[in-house]
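User: Please fill in residues for this 244-position structure.
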């Protein structure tokens, strides 16, 4: 027999169960850290999963979703059936962004979490100006102990200068910082560093309150360090067939 995709109802039940488990883990991690679980927002990372999953998640109460490619975000967003729940979704771009895609990103995303260099800020500023859109921006901070070629993120000591460029752009709202723990590295140390960078930024820009950190494998450590937003894909949707 040819294997069929799980029916919509089965998939919805699976997503509901996974979501409940992830929320329970978030609540437990917050409680262990003496934090209010309401201060931790779940962003479900839907990259490589179909728009039907995003629609199901929205109906299950998810309000924030993340994608790492502009094209995929734009297409998926356009494919969603209209409903109050899908209309409320906030779309986060969490992957590396090329300057030539700045306009598409500004048009399609509500939050750009991967702002990591002056040239990109210039491109986003120009795109926001041209399109009349406003967008929330997070500074992506490199948490690698050594500078690593090909890894995204600005060095911690360059965050202030980059933040100043964002803050000086009328349609870019400086929301805070984002970070990814180094592969196989010390997540506790990495999130501790990000928390210090976040606190420093907040002392200059009180509105920049977001610390986006933590994925399926390390979100309790991120919550312990003070993450306000966790980006979780696999634990909600299952294993992606392609690694990225
Ligand atoms: C894919 C991705 C995630 C989610 O990873 P999971 O391990 O599936 O939870 C989070 N953040 C970024 C930047 C990603 O690219």
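Assistant: Residues filled in for all 244 positions:
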């Amino acid at each position: 027999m040819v294997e069929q995709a799980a029916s919509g109802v089965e998939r919805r039940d699976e997503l509901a169960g996974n979501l409940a488990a992830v929320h329970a883990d978030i609540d437990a991690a917050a409680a262990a850290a003496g934090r209010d679980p309401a201060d931790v927002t779940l962003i479900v990372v839907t990259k490589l999963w179909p728009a039907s999953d995003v629609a199901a998640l929205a109906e299950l109460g998810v309000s924030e979703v993340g994608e790492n490619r502009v094209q995929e975000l734009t297409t998926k967003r356009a494919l969603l059936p209209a409903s109050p729940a899908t209309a409320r979704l906030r779309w986060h771009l969490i992957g590396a962004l090329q300057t030539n895609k700045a306009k598409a990103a500004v048009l399609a995303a509500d939050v750009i979490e991967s702002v990591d260099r002056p040239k990109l800020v210039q491109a986003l500023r120009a795109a926001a100006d041209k399109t009349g859109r406003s967008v929330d921006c997070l500074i992506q901070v490199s948490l690698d102990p050594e500078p690593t070629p090909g890894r995204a993120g600005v060095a911690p000591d360059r965050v202030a200068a980059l933040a100043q460029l964002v803050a000086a752009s009328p349609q870019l709202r400086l929301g805070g910082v984002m970070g990814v723990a180094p592969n196989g590295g010390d997540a506790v140390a990495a999130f501790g560093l990000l928390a210090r960078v976040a606190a420093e930024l907040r002392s200059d820009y009180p509105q920049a309150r977001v610390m986006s950190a933590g994925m399926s494998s390390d979100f309790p450590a991120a919550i312990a360090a003070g993450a306000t937003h966790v980006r979780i894909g696999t634990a909600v949707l299952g294993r992606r067939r392609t690694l990225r």
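For context: The radius of gyration is 18 Å.
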